[in-house]
Write a structure and sequence with these properties.
By secondary structure, the chain is of the alpha+beta class. It folds into two domains: 233 residues, Jelly Rolls; 75 residues, Phage tail protein beta-alpha-beta fold (3-Layer(bab) Sandwich). Helix content is 25%, strand content 36%. The longest helix has 14 residues. The protein is elongated, with a radius of gyration of 23 Å. The chain starts with 11 loop residues before the first helix and ends with a strand.
Amino acid sequence: MKKKINTDKWSDRDWAGAAAWLSGEENGSGDKARLLISEDADIMEKWNDLKYQDKEKIDVDKAWAKLNHRIEEAERPVLTLPARRRSFFGTFARIAAMVIIVAGAGWLLFVLASADNLTVATAATEKNVEVLLSDGSRVFLNRNSRLTYPGDFRGETRRVSLKGEAYFDISRDAEHPFIIDAGKASIRVLGTSFNVITENNEQEVEVYVSSGKVMVTSEDGSRSLTLEPEEVGRVSPGKATQTRNTNVNYLAWHTGMLKYDGERLGVVFDDLKRAYDIDIKVADPAINDYRLTSPFEQQPHDTIVKLICTTFNLHYVSEGGTYILSR
């Protein structure tokens, strides 16, 4: 039986050491990773096959397009990037440019291939997965979201692409605008904080601005919005709207903060669905009209549901990711 690697307890040092060893840079920092990888027959067989390929024959663009297609079609994301491992990817990007393929649960195969040093970060079940970019900008991915970005920004712009939802905190650089390709729109900034959502198979893009100024342009260039703090812009084929944000809990998925002052439970439930990716149903529609006044700070969703039920003398049952409330 072939031995498989269990990387669940690897430290950032282990990950960086593994990357250094696989790329030929022997730094003595990855003894455990080197030993484990060398004992995994599958990885070593594939690695040795790739190691001696003529790198000049590799079509980088074709390989990257193929990888993106596999990401779209795979049942699992190509790379799950937990927040605790983000420093590894920063180290790894400096060691070697490569395409990353998941070869099995809990382990990765690194393939030297990409001249553009592109990295894909995918958040599957976790939220607030932080990605630190080479310019110091930070991106926080929500669940089921994906960011594609270069290891180093080159040229006149800093460009990334997003599928799903993310909060961006962009380092200011007036000479190198930051551009996000998001579905059917592009977002251009110099330095600011904002949230981006792509919806309906990337046909619709929604942007909320926390600070600074953001320009959102439709894919065909026919429509453009300039958004300022507390404004929300929505762009879809043939349509663009700009409004003031009235939801104080818009960023609850990122901040972990929820605040209510006499708010209907129906609205509270909608916020919880968005922030925690859960479903809440009521046996009696009248429950939605109950009014709640309470702050919640970094509370698990099950705790919040229990507190609401205690406050209004309600009962609930939990079935998978769905809560059903009754009187």
